[in-house]
Amino acid sequence: MKFYDRDKELAILQANEQQSFESAVFTVLMGRRRIGKTSLITKFLEKKEYAYLFVSKDSEALLCQNFQRDLEQQIGLTIYGEVSKFKDLFEVIMKEAQKRHLTIVMDEFQTLYKINPSIFGDIQNIWDRYKREAKINFIVSGSIQTLMKRIFEDESEPLYGRPTSKFTLRPFTIEVMKQILQDVNPNYLPEDLLCLYAITGGVAKYIELLIDAKCYTRKKMLDYVCRQDSYFLTEGKDLLNQEFSGDFTTYFSILQVIANGKTKRSEIDSVLHKGMGTYLQNLESRYELINRMKPLLAKKNGKVTAYEIHDNFLRFWFRFIYPYQSLIERNLFSLLRSNIENNYEGFTGRTLERYFQDKFMETEQFTQIGNWWDRKGENEIDLIAINEFTHTGLIAEIKRNVHKLSMSKLQEKIAILPKKDFGEYEFETIGLSLQDM
Questions:
Q1: Which tens digit of pLDDT belongs to each residue from 294-345?
Q2: Rounded Cα distance, 388 and 385, in Å
């Protein structure tokens, strides 16, 4: 698959590079695994001289040996003798950057934490000593969100406040996903786009796997997911095991319960026969894997809440793959595929709501977008989008099947919206279905 989008991110890297010819620049690029961080950096550095250093899970001494070799081969930086300490290697780099401009990329930077946590203090010390005279474009990227945030956003950590540039790479927008499908399958159907969105959520690696395998339709995408050699079958575990370390069982159970539609705290506790408050808080704040949803404009301390898995792929994986490991182990992939087919429409009903919420947010015309429901859960509005500056908004009923849309029922729900919250807004009302994707 060809390289798509990322114009804004490339512009940031370009500006940072220009600055680095005059003063040292320390760029931190974060984002979930498979999002395309390395591809972005590689694209930006095409036809430029740079050193790419991948932080593997080796001893510090072996890692330094590998870095020594890479620096000499890629940018001609010869380090005499055998370096066994990262601080010595980094000091050589910074000294060299006082003589000539260097671009150094360090991938999976967070792995240094497991090799030797004191390395970050060494980087701080050396960076502070040499940065004024160094002409270096130092780019680090990392995938384990919890560690990257700890390294750079925890005030007690030595590298807090050191980066001159820090940003997070997000999934592809809906418009980019549509462009990708259009390029490979000009006659794609809304169902194909919804399936691509449901499985990948815009994550570059997942889209690339499907596109390169010529899976352009809903059927082919789902068939590919359920193949015996499918990358997607183990991806949930591969993605989260390092985040959760040894405490993944309870977290996986909670995510499975939420993916199956038990989204209230009381429902989750009931299914798992235990209070899950601390785990839910960690999943929301520490790991950023779930959202605590409230009716739009509800009070922050309101009790009407529900939980939802933030990541589309993980929502799909915990609904259709993780609970059926026994089928996978016994090579019963046809049964796995049949179960997805049988429950697909119900599952993608909510996915379609998320699609339109994302789509309207990407227009940059609204300041808040969400759902609304009453305390009893009897009246629910699929989408409310508001602009707090212009006091205008949009309210939508969303159904897969256009014939199931009922604007009269929507008006009845609108009539019971709290006037104290929504009375000042002038709303447009619309019905949305698959045909409007």
A1: 999 998 777 788 999 999 999 999 999 999 999 999 999 999 999 999 999 9
A2: 10
Q: Which fold has domain 7-168?
A: Rossmann fold (3.40.50)
Q: Which residues neighbour 251 within 8 Å (Cβ) at sequence distance 6 or greater?
A: 240, 244, 279, 282, 283, 287
Residue 54 carries which side chain, given as an amino acid letter? Answer: F
Strand order across the beta sheet in which 51-54 lies: 51-54, 102-107, 136-142, 25-30, 165-168
pLDDT at 242: 77
CATH class of 177-345: mainly alpha
Q: What is the pLDDT of residues 244-277, one digit of tens each?
A: 866 788 999 999 999 999 999 999 999 999 999 9
Beta bridge partner(s), residue 429: 395
The whole-model pTM stands at 0.91
pLDDT digits (tens, 9 = 90+) for 80-137: 888 999 999 999 999 999 999 999 999 999 999 989 999 999 999 999 999 999 999 9
Q: 3-class DSSP state for residue 32?
A: coil
Report d(CA 206, CA 169) in Å as an integer.
15
Domain boundaries in the chain?
A: 7-168, 177-345, 363-436
Q: Which two tokens stand for residue 427?
A: 């709303």
Beta strands in 318-409 (DSSP E): 368-373, 380-387, 392-398
Q: Sign of dihedral through CA atoms 28, 32, 35, 39?
A: positive
